[in-house]
Specification:
heterodimer, A: 109 residues, mainly alpha, 81% helix, 0% strand, elongated, B: 182 residues, Alpha-Beta Plaits, 2 domains, 65% helix
Chain lengths: 109, 182
């Protein structure tokens, strides 16, 4: 149980770290496109690792309801498919409506 | 006679498409609900049938050969992709947390040999998930990709190394469409 707790804490901690970095990136990066880099990537891994931590916890503490573990696994799968697709869709619309990408040396927008 | 047989084939293909979609939907319903009383099973059958009849052509479209081999290769590719995702996140985290923010964004274009819907979606999503690159536009007819890269290093991994394009082409076996991969 101590081992399971340790794994859970590490997974949750790393997941939260990536979510935190994603939020910082949203504030620090200079323009629309680069901000999407921060949120699109860090949120995917952050949410994935957080749910993985929950899976480990549930698997060791409530082995009777294994089905919930499977449902959580499906959640990870859907996040990993949906998140990049949504990021791409937002990016595509921005590019088509003419938002200019920031280049090195320009002022912050 | 020939036309009649063709129609027959089309009908059989459509029916099997509906059946496959229905089975997958219903299995997923049981997995999520885990209730086996008559009411929930009937509602599940109704919902799965509606989905299967309206959108079976989205899931089972133009069945290609060697589906099993491709699925296995896709599984291996996804494992490799997970490692790339971890690297991507460490890279982006480093760039964000570094006091000077070493970024140099640019938009790049390149062409691939991929034409199939599933292959294009796989590559586009892989690009979005891996180091410092996000897909902006895809032209399915020419296999051309527009990609936003956060730094020169991440742009070069797509333009010079082309590891990812080659791996996706290997998985779906779509190497040649008049475009040279070297």
């Amino acid at each position: 149980m101590v081992l399971a707790d340790a794994i859970t804490i590490v997974l949750l901690g790393v997941g939260l770290f990536f979510l935190f970095v994603g939020s910082i990136g949203l504030l620090r990066l200079p323009d629309f496109y680069t901000r999407l880099h921060a949120t699109g990537k860090c949120d995917t891994l952050g949410a994935g690792l957080t749910i993985l931590g929950l899976i480990v916890h549930h698997f060791f503490y409530y082995p009777g309801t294994i089905l919930i573990t499977v449902k959580l696994l499906f959640l990870i799968l859907f996040i990993f498919v949906a998140n990049p697709t949504a990021t791409h869709a937002i990016m595509r619309v921005a590019y088509k409506t003419g938002v200019m990408p920031w280049k090195l040396g320009e002022e912050r927008k | 006679m020939e036309i009649g047989r063709g129609e027959e084939m089309m009908k059989r293909k459509k029916a099997s498409g509906i059946l496959i979609t229905f089975s997958i939907m219903f299995l997923f319903w049981i997995l999520l609900s885990c209730l086996f009383d008559a009411f929930h099973l009937l509602v599940g059958i109704g919902c799965s049938a509606t989905v299967a009849l309206t959108s079976h052509d989205l899931l089972v479209k133009g069945r290609s050969k060697k589906v099993l081999l491709k699925s296995f290769q896709l599984l291996l590719y996804i494992l490799w992709e997970f490692w790339q995702i971890v690297l991507a996140n460490l890279d982006v985290a480093y760039r964000i947390l570094h006091p000077k923010m070493p970024i140099d964004p640019r938009v790049i274009e390149f062409e691939t040999t991929l034409r199939g819907d599933f292959a294009l979606v796989t590559l586009a999503n892989s690009i979005t998930l891996t180091p410092g690159t996000i897909t902006i536009l895809v032209a399915p007819e020419t296999g051309k990709f527009w990609v936003h890269a956060i730094a020169k290093k991440s742009a070069d991994s797509l333009l010079v190394d082309q590891t990812m394009q080659r791996k996706v082409a290997d998985v779906f076996m779509e190497w040649k469409h008049g475009v040279d991969m070297t």
